[in-house]
Design goal:
Blueprint lengths: L2 E8 L3 E8 L4 E8 L5 H18 L3 E9 L2 E3 L4 E5 L4 E4 L1 H8 L5 E5 H12 L8 E6 L3 E7 L2 E2 L31 H5 L1 H11 L26 H10 L2 H25 L3 E5 L7 H14 L9 E4 L6 H12 L17
Parallel strand pairs: 1-4, 4-8, 9-12, 12-13
Antiparallel strand pairs: 1-2, 2-3, 5-6, 6-7, 9-10, 10-11
């Protein structure tokens, strides 16, 4: 019988589980909203969607892979710290093993799982040195070097969003530092650029309250997509915000090229939906800042798996025995790193 694994994408507002085959194709998908961040409630919701995915697939299930936000102990699957959930030392891996004793269980950071998914089954296929960046509320991702995903001494490698690019004039990051790449070049960063520039555009239509029945304050509805679409229409305020955003994005990307010299940098997440409009602005800025690596040798492209990358990567890790590029056997019932 053909093999599959259950890949779980655990987020702050929902959990998704999917049966994923060895080619990275999803055959069954189940989601559950998360309203209570108590560990018992989250694990119950996770177990519910995993159980549904196992029941729905006709494949031989090789294991369960879970991508979770936070720093994770690879030997146990314990969530050491997750600011998304406010968790410390939650034994997620063991609790899932207790619920599904028949299957090996793998737990890893969600961004690293997404990187493996995009590398093994997306736009990273065929490369040896690859970086994924997801541009959403924050910046996640990971680094593949010579076919192996970089994990670091304490599983913290790949936190590209938290290198500093604007230490003196930058926005305050959620991590507490000033001017992190994430603070400047995430979707949230684009919104902050728009607000910072607002005094220069007192008649900006971008700041007009929307004429609808949404009860939220209008400032809470100034999303990155609205700014990007206004920039594409030529709105002066939006164009200025977009330009400042692209400058910071290019600065961070040029640093990534200097740090790890990847063949491909893939951009995923909500902001990457701007597609060519983003790439045509960012690529020349990156090239201008690239010095120690031959210019034009790093391809910057859109990621292809979208929101499925995390689940696909988690399932791939469960089948391969961990966050690696090449398959190795994993012992049945073992939590692997």
């Amino acid at each position: 019988m053909a093999r599959a694994a259950i890949g779980v994408d655990l987020g702050g507002s929902h959990v998704m589980a999917a049966a994923v085959d060895e080619a990275g194709l999803i055959h069954a998908r189940f989601e559950h909203e998360i309203e209570d961040h108590d560990p018992a409630a989250v694990i119950a919701a996770l177990a519910d969607v995993v159980r549904s995915a196992i029941a729905a697939t006709k494949h031989d299930v090789a294991g369960i892979g879970i991508g979770s936000p936070g720093n994770i102990d690879p030997s146990s699957g314990t969530i050491r710290y997750s600011p998304n959930f406010g968790w410390e030392n939650v034994p997620l891996g063991q609790r899932v093993r207790d619920a599904f004793p028949k299957y090996p269980v793998f737990v890893a950071n969600d961004a690293r799982c997404a990187t493996l998914g995009e590398y093994a089954h997306g736009v990273g296929q065929g490369t040896q040195d690859f970086v994924l960046l997801t541009l959403g509320t924050g910046i996640g991702g990971g680094i593949v070097a010579q076919g192996a995903l970089s994990l670091g001494h304490q599983m913290g490698a790949g936190e590209i969003g938290h290198h500093t690019i604007r230490p003196d004039t930058g926005f305050i990051c959620a991590c507490g530092k000033v001017g992190c790449f994430e603070a400047q070049a995430s979707g949230t960063g684009l919104i902050r650029h728009a607000f910072r520039l607002a005094p220069s555009f007192p008649r900006s239509a971008l700041l007009d309250p929307p004429k609808d029945d949404d009860p939220r304050p209008w400032r809470d509805r100034l999303g990155s997509k609205r700014i990007r679409k206004a920039a594409q229409r030529g709105d002066a305020h939006a164009v200025a915000a977009w330009s400042a955003y692209c400058e910071d994005l290019a600065l961070g990307l040029s640093n990534v090229i200097a740090f790890v010299n990847p063949e491909v940098i893939a951009l995923g997440g909500g902001v990457s939906s701007a597609g060519d409009f983003m790439l045509e602005h960012v690529k020349p800025l990156v090239e201008a800042r690239t010095t120690m690596v031959p210019r034009g040798t790093t391809r910057i492209v859109r990621a292809t798996l979208g929101n499925d990358a995390g689940a696909v990567g988690a399932a791939t890790a469960a089948m391969r025995g961990g966050l690696i590029a090449r398959a190795t056997p994993a012992a049945a019932g073992q939590i692997v790193a």
